[in-house]
Amino acid sequence: MGDRQKKTELFDQIARVGKAVGNGKRLELLDLLVQGERSVEKLAAAADLGLTTASAHLQVLRQAGLVTTRREGTKIYYNVAGLDVIRLYEQLRAVATDRVADVRRARDDYLGLDPTAPVDQTAETSREELLAKAADGRVTVIDVRPREEYEFAHVPGARSLPLDELAERLGDLPEDQEVVAYCRGAYCVLAYEAVNLLHDQGVPARRLQDGMLEWHLSGLPVENGQAA
């Protein structure tokens, strides 16, 4: 039968991970860290949190073994602890979306989607189609995330064109190729906004169906370093 007290202790310890991800802001911090290492200050600013609050949330994630830290001078940098943590986050998101209607409504509202409209297959492209076109030089791939995320890891051959710079850098895009934009993942609004901006300027563009999170999980190659 086993020892009841020891069994309870086992499940209580497992539950520490569940408690760590049982907070929207901590999930948002994980979502950011999937894109690459960041300082506490950068995470706080990106998640619209005070520094003390962000530090407290990050400590909970660290104590549950979901993130790691390193110190550089006076700054502390955080990163996800491993690919298994990225998978956990993606699965949690997928189960929530499949099982909770409010999640689907919130997602559609955030991304500006109309769930009653027919799916526009021409608005997006799959990873497989993107790889085939990129190999033949038939598409220009742009990464519209903040530059520091691009430098940490990006789709091979992609150009860094952060969304807040895109309108001023349209001249950097070739006139004779389709553009595919991608960002953090399937629930990232940046690529949607980038494609809308490009369409308004008469630039043929589509978005990747998902983003870097799913690219990582698929085991596809990535590049890192600064944009040329």
Automatic annotation (TrEMBL):
<dbReference type="InterPro" id="IPR036388">
    <property type="entry name" value="WH-like_DNA-bd_sf"/>
</dbReference>
<protein>
    <submittedName>
        <fullName>ArsR family transcriptional regulator</fullName>
    </submittedName>
</protein>
<feature type="domain" description="Rhodanese">
    <location>
        <begin position="135"/>
        <end position="224"/>
    </location>
</feature>
<dbReference type="InterPro" id="IPR036390">
    <property type="entry name" value="WH_DNA-bd_sf"/>
</dbReference>
<dbReference type="InterPro" id="IPR051011">
    <property type="entry name" value="Metal_resp_trans_reg"/>
</dbReference>
<dbReference type="GO" id="GO:0003677">
    <property type="term" value="F:DNA binding"/>
</dbReference>
<keyword id="KW-0804">Transcription</keyword>
<dbReference type="Pfam" id="PF00581">
    <property type="entry name" value="Rhodanese"/>
</dbReference>
<keyword id="KW-0238">DNA-binding</keyword>
<dbReference type="InterPro" id="IPR001763">
    <property type="entry name" value="Rhodanese-like_dom"/>
</dbReference>
<dbReference type="GO" id="GO:0004792">
    <property type="term" value="F:thiosulfate-cyanide sulfurtransferase activity"/>
</dbReference>
<dbReference type="InterPro" id="IPR001845">
    <property type="entry name" value="HTH_ArsR_DNA-bd_dom"/>
</dbReference>
<keyword id="KW-0805">Transcription regulation</keyword>
<dbReference type="InterPro" id="IPR036873">
    <property type="entry name" value="Rhodanese-like_dom_sf"/>
</dbReference>
<feature type="domain" description="HTH arsR-type">
    <location>
        <begin position="6"/>
        <end position="100"/>
    </location>
</feature>
<dbReference type="InterPro" id="IPR001307">
    <property type="entry name" value="Thiosulphate_STrfase_CS"/>
</dbReference>
<dbReference type="InterPro" id="IPR011991">
    <property type="entry name" value="ArsR-like_HTH"/>
</dbReference>
<dbReference type="GO" id="GO:0003700">
    <property type="term" value="F:DNA-binding transcription factor activity"/>
</dbReference>
<dbReference type="Pfam" id="PF01022">
    <property type="entry name" value="HTH_5"/>
</dbReference>
